[in-house]
UniProtKB/TrEMBL annotation:
Designated name of the protein: Phytocyanin domain-containing protein
Signal peptide: 1-23
One Pfam family from the record: Cu_bind_like
Gene3D superfamilies documented for this protein: Cupredoxins - blue copper proteins
A GO MF term: metal ion binding
Membrane spanning residue stretches: 155-178
Keywords on record: Copper, Glycoprotein, Membrane, Metal-binding, Signal, Transmembrane, Transmembrane helix
Organism whose genome encodes this protein: Ceratodon purpureus
GO CC terms of this entry: plasma membrane
Domain Phytocyanin: 24-130
PROSITE patterns: COPPER_BLUE, MULTICOPPER_OXIDASE1, PHYTOCYANIN
Amino acid sequence: MARMVQGLVLVMALATLLDVTFAVEHVVGGGVQKWTFLHANDASTLYNDWAANQTFKTGDTLLFEYDNATHSVLQVVQADYNTCNLRTPIDKWMTGSDSVFLSNAGTFYFVCGTPFHCEQGMKVAITATGATVAAPPPPPAAIAPSPTSPSHSHAAPGVTFSFTLSVLLTTSLAALVWS
């Protein structure tokens, strides 16, 4: 009987670990629209309509893909999001393929940094749920960034857990339970 209880505890621990370890990468706007200027026939709520059909958790990544000659991504506070104030962003991304890691729960506000694009609907509010997770390590760089160019693969909030880490933890837990 004791072994059955220990086995049940292990299965529940595994299920919890696996639920936490699989982060999702969300391409903002979906696979077709992405982060771009809205056309006259697009709803001005297109990005928020897309976000309403997604589930965002801590550890997930937002991927903004766009033409960086005409667009950028600004993270702003709610008041600046509501009024499309571009003057005081919390953070800014400009590469055209920017990952934003969600490391803590809350609502995060993003707008295009090009004047008048936000007013025409190029903005999105993302609400993430879950426990706070540590930021991921920066990706390995082939060439070290120059001291004047900031790195933008950082967290606005963010992280992903390694599957290898969860396997190691699970193996250790199993060894403790059955020893």
